[in-house]
């Protein structure tokens, strides 16, 4: 089903400790272009740490994260984003004082103008193209009607959908999703899954951390299982589902 | 490049222009219709508008912006002394100097954010104040302040054969007197204020302005969105430094004297008060704050014991003595006590400043007009 087998993200032998706590141990992970790669594991397994290492929020102690030939742990967060890596956070990171439309226009500007552009005299209202693009992306996540309200007034689920639109408008090559459906109703979860499924057609590679097995098994092409900072299994959803090791570490507990 | 502002913005600019140009008419009954005080209103309004571009949009609170105003003043007077009494030359040079200082101080101070940024700017401004006061006396003339002298070379003016006046020459805009307390001085400041106000609206309504607001809202998110916040912050800092330098240039254009006290931290604090009192992050708030503070400073400082005695003349002797003693605390030299109290009341009850007050009153009226729903009305009243 994959058209090519290029590894786009390579996490190479990453170790990370916080004080005496070993959060990641020899984590080695290859994500192929155009696939959906899920990382699952029990609470405290190091999933979020792994994503934070990928976007430059936390530097690894040893090892590297390589995206398309660039070592990510040596460059700044905005440079990582400019390479085409975008992330949806577990706790929504949005511009609370700005309108939804502005929230989505800002990342579109980042994609078009780069990390800095000095245009203090240009009118925002002259940016019709960006505005229309932002409106269509708000439409896609079902927030178009609220486009002029402040983001602070949104429910948690809506904030997550807004953040999704903020990432998608950048058409990232690699999208990192940290529990994108946490805090959502079942109905919203299903719409989010549908949305994420359509992204596959846009050639977007995704790494997704998720607790909800329904989400994982309906989306993922490959699954890595993380437990106590180590990858204990990796394979297709069926392989992982049937792995005794995984059952013991994770699925066994949650599927009862 | 022109156009693209909304109809409301154009109305705001038009209304602002009319109010400023007609200031001599509507300020006269308030006892402030003379050029010297109106020039002050314009100059501090420019200072506050610029400060608001940094503080209002990015949330970075500088406690050292008076330093740029001081740099602008000294630079302006030096141009008068060395080359020409024409205010164009002095203003341009003041902008260059203030911009350079803002670039350096901003670059260093912006390595930190929050309270540390504020302290760094404060430290820089105090350093500059002390240096201007003592070490750099040859340039700043220390305690006395830098002023014009008859023996000044004024190379350009003399080369062009400008007519020799008796006594100190006046600053001029191509032959029109700016200093000396005439109306042209006010209109010169007024036109520059209107231009500054217009530019500030453009900045507020630009993608650049939106990025500054986004940095204030969530700087971490900005980084993960692909933006480098540093150059945005530095640009905002330099722009507000330029506004401050321009205010300094206008100060010496209307009264060619530059003193170190203009750079003291109290002067930096004053522009913070003006901006907060009027409404941080609003377009006209800083202008209102600057005008009100300068207006009431003028009124309250003028009160002395004799005037107070006359005011409380109707009271019996003992009570009058008490009333005079008590109110003397709040006027004259004690004006800052009044300002402090008003400021506290505003910050506690109207954190958005006077503009928030106006918005609340407006909301109250529009709700009453449009809503027949009694239940909704009671909710508004309860708030």
TrEMBL record, chain A:
An example Gene Ontology CC term for this record: plasma membrane
Highest taxon, organism lineage: Bacteria
InterPro entries in the cross-refs: AAA+_ATPase, ABC_AA/LPS_Transport, ABC_transporter-like_ATP-bd, BCA_ABC_TP_C, P-loop_NTPase
Transmembrane segments: none
Protein name: ABC transporter ATP-binding protein
Gene3D superfamilies the UniProt entry points to: P-loop containing nucleotide triphosphate hydrolases
Domain ABC transporter intervals: 9-253
UniProt entry keywords in alphabetical sequence: ATP-binding, Nucleotide-binding, Transport
GO molecular function: ATP binding; ATP hydrolysis activity
Any Pfam family matching the protein: BCA_ABC_TP_C
Entry-linked PROSITE patterns: ABC_TRANSPORTER_2
Signal peptide: none
UniProtKB/TrEMBL annotation, chain B:
Pfam families, per the entry: BPD_transp_2
Keyword terms of this UniProt record: Cell membrane, Membrane, Transmembrane, Transmembrane helix
InterPro entries reported for this sequence: ABC_transp_permease, LivM-like
Listed GO MF terms: branched-chain amino acid transmembrane transporter activity
Cell location: Cell membrane
Membrane association type: Multi-pass membrane protein
GO cellular component, one term: plasma membrane
Domain of life: Bacteria
Bilayer-spanning residue ranges: 12-34, 41-63, 83-108, 115-136, 185-204, 232-253, 335-359
UniProt-listed PANTHER family: ABC TRANSPORTER ATP-BINDING PROTEIN, HIGH-AFFINITY BRANCHED-CHAIN AMINO ACID TRANSPORT SYSTEM PERMEASE
Protein's name in the database: Branched-chain amino acid ABC transporter permease
Source organism per UniProt: Notoacmeibacter marinus
